[in-house]
Amino acid sequence: MPAGGFAVSAPTGTEFEAKITPIVIISCIMAATGGLMFGYDVGVSGGVTSMNDFLRKFFPKVYRRKNETGLESNYCKYDNQGLQLFTSSLYLAGLTATFFASYTTRRLGRRLTMLIAGFFFIGGVIFNGAAQDLGMLIVGRILLGCGVGFANQAVPLFLSEIAPTRIRGGLNILFQLNITIGILFANLINYGTSKIHPWGWRLSLALAGIPAFLLTIGALFVVDTPNSLIERGRLEQGRAVLRRIRGTNNVDAEFEEIVQASNAARQVKHPFRNLLKRRNRPQLVIAIVMQIFQQFTGINAIMFYSPVLFNTLGFKNDASLYSAVITGAVNVVSTLVSIYSVDRVGRRALLLEAGVQMFFSQVVISVVLGFKVKDHSEGLAKGWAVLVVLMVCIFVSAFAWSWGPLGWLIPSETFPLETRSAGQSVTVCTNLLFTFVIAQAFLSMLCHMKYGIFAFFSGWVVIMSIFVLFFLPETKNVPIEEMTERVWKQHWFWKRFVEDAEQEKLEAVVNNGKSAKEVESA
Ligand code: BGC
After folding, report:
1. Is the CB of 147 under 6 A from ligand 1?
2. Which of 174, 443, 448, 511 has the fewest CB atoms within 10 Å distance of its CB?
3. Which of 6, 178, 292, 294 to mutate to test the pocket of ligand 1 (most atoms within 8 A of CB)?
4. Which region among 87-96, 112-121, 384-393, 417-426 has the lowest average model confidence (pLDDT)?
5. For the whole model, what pTM was predicted?
6. From the CA of 431, how far away is ligand 1's center (Å)?
7. d(C-alpha 114, C-alpha 99), whole Å
8. For residue 179, which atom of ligand 1 is closest to its CA?
9. Ligand 1 centre from 4 Cα, in Å?
10. The domain 5-485 is classified under which CATH number: 2.30.42.10, 1.20.1250.20, 3.90.1150.10, 2.60.40.1080?
11. Topology in the membrane (predicted)?
12. From CA 522, how far away is CA 518, in angstroms rounded?
């Protein structure tokens, strides 16, 4: 999830006749609302938790601590489990919902799953906007999280199945772009509503209703994907829908391919057990490790808590909120850079360059904070404050053209068809799990580790860059069906897993007289 963009590329890379029909355009708008909704939820909580009216109502202890100078260390003003739960509960709920979502996307279809997501979102927005106590606030966040779990599974699948092959890759990063736009949108709204007293925060939370409503309406009106209809045995309906969305009657070849793919997928009785087989190890390890690394860049310390963080450094409320707007805008623009360069300079180059940039900026932040922000000091002087915001921007831009989109893109393009949907669920779950960990722990870590927290993240950046250098193969311009030959078999480390699998197959044939096919399906 996304978090993130999760479109799946064409299984065979074949190009079928397809027009960009109105249905395809509507589905792009759906992607926009699904991604916007997720991004808005990511971005809105930090700004709201830095607003005095909100703190006074729900977290009076934090409010007192924030406004009494001298008693508590600057770094610990916001260290409160309840406050972190307000942010993190969404991701925990999302993680749990993903398990159900993977069932409903298969059994009920993509469209109904999106509708379920829409209802959860609307419920969550109502609870949040009307919240009278912490309980209502958390219930609202949990409902939103369920929406995220269902939407992040169904929307990308829906998109990748409805879009013609030639625009699938672009749609993948488009989803990420919409997340960043959602975050920026939330930052801007927070900046505006913080001036409305005492209920500005309600407006911030309630405005998530707009993308939620659009997603729900969209899900009511679009058709389900041909793949989903065929998977559920409605062959003729699937064919009719395929004709409509492609704008041509000439769909027999694509129809046949979907039928075959869905038959093949049905052969895999235990998708998750299958994923654990040794031959699938390279993709599985890479998908899991990339999600953990993506979160340990420390990006969500910034996305969730930058207004709180800037406040900690002594910025006034207003300055904190507009600094968050600046970093949000940098995030959007840098994601565009990624769309442009990912198939030109390649994945590895982007990740390695970003590693250097992220390391450098985090070390500078850590050093400035170490020297200039003391436990009970007044906060940063203007020049230093500008330097910190600049470094945060340099960090965010590097993330946005590397680990942000690529954390999602690489797993989605390396899993072969037979493990793709299970692999996708594992990817989304791991991401949400570690997003939860950061959301729940960051403010306490800031309190205990102080400026060292950024040195901690920079250490992780070194580890992940070494991983990229030695273990992440380049997948630029490699069609999915050629991954084994051109990528895994050529890689110094991962090739042993592919070779072992082939060796096993061969031995079994020789020893037991079994056919290779029998061994394969065993
Ligand atoms: C990550 C999110 C993050 C966002 C920031 C996504 O790729 O999965 O956790 O908040 O990027 O733009």
Report:
1. no
2. 511
3. 294
4. 417-426
5. 0.88
6. 9
7. 15
8. 12
9. 6
10. 1.20.1250.20
11. Multi-pass membrane protein
12. 6
